[in-house]
């Protein structure tokens, strides 16, 4: 099972039993109608409140312009599908044994929504700096002490401006933008079809944390569509404060203030790296890729996970590292069960800035392995389920080159899961299993001590911004910052 949070997590047995009862009562033999919902939602208002005057984000909720195609293979396509919102299923049913907290569901009609949470990425090179601004302005990404929180936005402006040229180079080398939106849309479509095949018609929404379509837009659409029960599925297998934690905080802030949302039964699947379907799908991909080597038995399986600063784990209690290690253990156990007994190792990539990140670092380990005489290596990206800049540029280009220079002769890389049918089918099962535990959202922040300051008055805000800008400029001149700029930041 996956970990559902804040809403009374049931035991595995209880979950699966109630899931099947839930399905037969509600859907058996009842007619369903599918409605296509317009995808062009009103992002303007959301943007005004999000970016204030710092980040001149232009409005575009249009389709992805990425020229690349990371094709997904949904088993079957049915019905028209919009840009972001997918065919809606309206199901009539007779009985529903809801709790007091589920009062909105005690109606004759239930409309289930699934909200996929993801990071988002710049669609074009012009989007890179404002995307980076949104990322660095997130207090779950740059965790400043409470006293210095007012520096967050000026610092984000500074760092995003300084980092943008390097990031742009990266995005230019993979076709001029991130493939994330396109792939996530395809995953949403595949998930909708998989759920339909399991007789659970749903609307699937995509909510990105740092770029379009923003989580706020998706939630507005969920309200408009009068969804009565929601499953939140972050597309990160392992939980981190910086990923799932950050997106859930956005939801909690929205749900806390809104009468409709605060009563809606919601189930959040906090992490799902331990699900059998996910582990098996990863093992399938690894096994298949190993076969492309001349001597598959001699290949080192090299898991490369996105890093986080060490302080997240040691000071803030981020379970990310533990979950990552357990995930690798489960994948290797499954491979062993299949008779694949290769050596393996785990390292962390993509560090940014002057602080210590989780170790060992991918680049250092690659060099060491080369020096130790490892000749064949299979890289396995493990913290994310779509191709993105860090697989396509960092692993496929930078790390490959480094590995070959370091003496590794045979290089391979396992593709991201994207829309692998067994994986999507397992996500669909995770959604079905999460449905019975949906209750009104707990809006107490989870694993995040960040408070919302969006309602402060404009004068305080401008004052803090100006003061912050001056301090950020001074900080820029400090020796530590200069070192950071020469290192990983730029
Ligand atoms: C599980 C996955 C991820 C974790 C954990 C994570 C933490 C984290 N990331 C940054 C800084 C950056 N991340 C960037 C891109 C990026 N990050 C992830 C995933 C995780 N990040 C993905 C999938 C992507 C790529 C999106 C895409 O467009 O394809 C970037 C921008 C790219 C770049 O300039 O390198 C930055 C910056 C921090 C600081 C952090 C933890 C605190
Ligand atoms: Fe990242």
Automatic annotation (TrEMBL):
Keywords: Chloroplast, Heme biosynthesis, Iron, Lyase, Plastid, Porphyrin biosynthesis
Entry EC number(s): 4.98.1.1
Subcellular location, principal: plastid
An MF annotation (GO) of this entry: ferrochelatase activity
GO BP, one annotated term: heme biosynthetic process
Pathway this chain belongs to: Porphyrin-containing compound metabolism; protoheme biosynthesis; protoheme from protoporphyrin-IX: step 1/1
Pfam families, per database record: Ferrochelatase (PF00762)
Catalytic activity reported: heme b + 2 H(+) = protoporphyrin IX + Fe(2+)
Highest taxon, organism lineage: Eukaryota
PROSITE patterns, alphabetized: FERROCHELATASE
Entry's localization field: Plastid, Chloroplast
InterPro entries: Ferrochelatase, Ferrochelatase_AS, Ferrochelatase_C, Ferrochelatase_N
Any Gene Ontology CC annotation: mitochondrion
HAMAP family named among the record's database cross-references: Ferrochelatase
Family assignment from sequence similarity: Belongs to the ferrochelatase family.
PANTHER family to which the protein is assigned, alphabetical: FERROCHELATASE (PTHR11108), FERROCHELATASE-1, CHLOROPLASTIC_MITOCHONDRIAL (PTHR11108:SF4)
Function: Catalyzes the ferrous insertion into protoporphyrin IX.
Protein name: Ferrochelatase
């Amino acid at each position: 099972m996956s970990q559902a949070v804040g809403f009374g997590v049931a035991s595995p047995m209880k979950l699966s039993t109630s899931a099947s009862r839930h399905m037969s009562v509600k859907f058996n033999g009842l007619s369903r109608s599918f409605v296509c919902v317009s995808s062009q939602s009103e992002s303007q208002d959301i943007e005004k409140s999000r970016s204030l005057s710092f980040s001149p984000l232009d409005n575009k909720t249009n389709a992805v312009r990425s020229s690349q195609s990371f094709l997904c293979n949904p088993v079957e396509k049915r019905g028209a599908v919009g840009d972001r919102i997918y065919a809606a299923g309206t199901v009539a049913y007779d009985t529903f044994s809801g709790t007091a907290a589920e009062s909105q569901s005690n109606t004759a009609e239930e409309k289930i929504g699934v909200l996929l949470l993801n990071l988002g990425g710049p669609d074009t090179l012009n989007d890179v700096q404002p995307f980076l601004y949104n990322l660095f302005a997130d207090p779950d990404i740059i965790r400043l002490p409470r006293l210095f929180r007012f520096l967050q936005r000026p610092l984000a402006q500074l760092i995003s401006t300084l980092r943008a040229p390097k990031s742009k180079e990266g995005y230019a080398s993979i076709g001029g933008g991130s493939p994330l939106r396109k792939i996530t849309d395809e995953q949403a479509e595949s998930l909708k079809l998989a759920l339909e095949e399991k007789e659970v018609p749903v609307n699937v929404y995509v909510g990105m944390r740092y770029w379009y379509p923003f989580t706020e837009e998706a939630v507005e659409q969920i309200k408009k569509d009068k969804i009565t029960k929601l499953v939140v599925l972050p597309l990160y297998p392992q939980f981190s404060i910086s990923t799932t934690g950050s997106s859930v905080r956005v939801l909690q802030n929205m749900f806390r203030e809104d009468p409709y949302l605060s009563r809606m039964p919601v189930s959040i699947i906090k992490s799902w790296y331990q699900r059998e379907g996910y582990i098996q799908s990863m093992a399938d991909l690894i096994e298949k890729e190993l076969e492309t080597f001349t001597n598959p038995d001699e290949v080192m399986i090299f898991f490369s996970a996105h890093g986080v600063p060490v302080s997240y784990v040691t000071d803030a209690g981020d379970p990310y590292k533990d979950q990552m290690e357990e995930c690798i253990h489960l994948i290797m156990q499954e491979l062993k069960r299949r008779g694949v007994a290769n050596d393996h190792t785990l390292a962390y990539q993509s560090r940014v800035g002057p602080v210590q990140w989780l170790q060992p670092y991918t680049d250092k380990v690659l060099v060491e392995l080369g020096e130790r005489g490892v000749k064949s290596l299979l890289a396995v990206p493990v913290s994310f389920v779509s191709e993105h800049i860090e697989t396509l540029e960092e692993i496929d280009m930078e790390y490959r080159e480094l590995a070959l220079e370091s003496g590794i002769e045979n290089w391979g890389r396992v593709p991201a899961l994207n829309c692998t049918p067994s994986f999507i089918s397992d996500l669909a099962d995770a959604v079905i299993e999460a449905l019975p535990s949906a209750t009104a959202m707990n809006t107490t922040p989870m694993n995040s001590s960040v408070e919302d300051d969006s309602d402060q008055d404009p004068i305080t805000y401008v004052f803090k911004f100006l003061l912050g800008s001056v301090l950020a400029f001074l900080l820029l001149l400090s020796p530590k910052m200069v070192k950071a700029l020469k290192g990983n930041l730029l």
